[in-house]
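Deliverable D5.2: sample structural annotation.
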Amino acid sequence: MFRRFLLVALLALGPALATAAPERLPVGEFFKDPEFTSVSLSPSGKYITVSVPQGDRTVLAAFEIDGMKLVGKWDYGEKRHIERVTWVNDERFLMFVSRKVGRFDFRVGTPDVYASNVDGTQRADMPNLGYYDIVDLTWDDPRTILVQRSVDSAFLSRYDVYNGRVSTVATAPVRFGGFLLDHEGKVRYALGQQEDQTTVTLRRDGDRWTTVHTAEMGGDVRIPLMFSGDNKRVYFATSEEGRPAGLVLVDPETGDETPVVSNPNVQPYTYLTSSDDRELLAVAFMDGLPGYEFINRDHPESKTYAGLINAFPQHAVSFQGISRDGRLVLFRAYSDVDPGAYYLFDRTTGAAQFLLASMEWIDPEKMAEMRAVSFTARDGTRVHGYLTLPNGAGKGPLPLVLNPHGGPHGIRDMWGFNPEVQFLANRGYAVLQVNFRGSGGYGSGFERKGYRNWGTTMVDDMTDAVDWAIAQGIADKDRICTYGASYGGYAALQTVVREPVKYRCTIGYVGVYSLPLMFKDGDIPETESGRAFLERVMPETLAEQQRQSPAFNVDKIRIPVMLVQGAKDQRVPMSQYRLLKKNLTDAGRAPEVDIVEDKEGHGFYDYDNQVELYTAMEKFLDKYIGAGAGGSR
């Protein structure tokens, strides 16, 4: 494939300016497991580890970079996925193993974490380390790390990565909390969340904790991130009046604040720090397309990062690690049409070495460009999203699929390679993704506007996006369908309730269809924090919950419906699917296509089941807005 050629060949790639209809690729090409899911670099830069999906599990392989020689392999069995690796010294790493039943499930971490030397020796089970988060790798002490865990309150502990012994270092009076240390290893701040979803920021003053900031869920934030290089000031992510959070530099002694960087539309989504972990170099924003704002331009590593970004036009560059001596940089280059490849850059030689491509069978020239778009909603709010047009689409109005994301809060659609979107575009559909109010990344005020409005304001933003696409001549007003999964499945049905004559068909995949049922069934109401979340975001009265529920408004659903459900779904259980199906059937409008897989959970995980699902979806869409529809209503 092209990725194995010279680096300069990759840099020349760009979206194809095709004029003919795109080649129809096999369904399975889009949904095969990637060849790997994550790569990590050892502190010395001598080794990498690679997580490799293999059917019902994800195994780990370790390679010596020089010659890509395999030095070790780890496999923890069926439905066990080695999600990520954290190196704790030059020879030893931790493997975080999780379970994932459904495609849209969060992977559930196992209580134990597994440790091993890179050559496979001294393998050990680290009891209960899965309940902890790593705070500091304490490079000067290769035997231990600092970790945090909440048990009624937050605990900071020292953990031995060879025998699993734990000793308490500090505590903080917050229910679910974490700690920030300065560059000398002193505990300086704690950030936590109470059972009622209130967030609290505390500062350590001698032997006591002082409250710096509190906010209800969806309120303004004040989060300490790291100390400055001189160890005297602190970088905080702060927001006011619901605006997107920006960075300020705070002097803890005087309280003086200096603005550092912000974006009027979005808040940061990641940060770049120096190889010695002392300097903050850059802040990444996803304002449409991804980009970095460098705040320490004179640092030599900043110049390296900026040079690599410039070396990959029409791609985004994600930095995955740097050796402790600052010599080797692991990075991933990807785009909307390219699933991405990993490279290792040597700062002493100026050479980049190709390592791995995640989906080498994907040809970027056959994929469709994803464009960042924005529009003004009916109340004047600016809303952002993405539009993907099929190759060779021409200028005429196109059949369109409205594809709302899941979540919904704290989640947003982002620019990059999306197999579902590319599959739909390959079948000739424009795909519209909307970061409606309630989505994450655009500030607490924007997210808060979605609370209690799952089926009203949030859905109206989607409708306004469709109307914008029609007005721009992009979408054919008589050939529009909705499709989504999880919350997106809810939204796909609720858009039809809200706009009974706008759409030709709708597809709900593991969707919520009854808001009242969310208080009774599924894994969310099983915990106090989950119940607090529902109380915060759901409509307050039963009548309003029903008004915003597709299952209670089937009289307005007058178009063909396709429903997809996993029988083992714990997040959105079968009761949601059964209620909507029963009410539609009782109203004389049973789902036209109805797919239930007995062994699947919150989204189909099995490759064959995915191929069957998307093949059925293709036929369904074709019948109502594709070539089979004849272009007329």
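Annotation notes: Confidence is low (pLDDT under 50) at residues 1-19. The first helix runs from residue 7 to 11.
The annotation will be released with the project's public dataset once the embargo ends.
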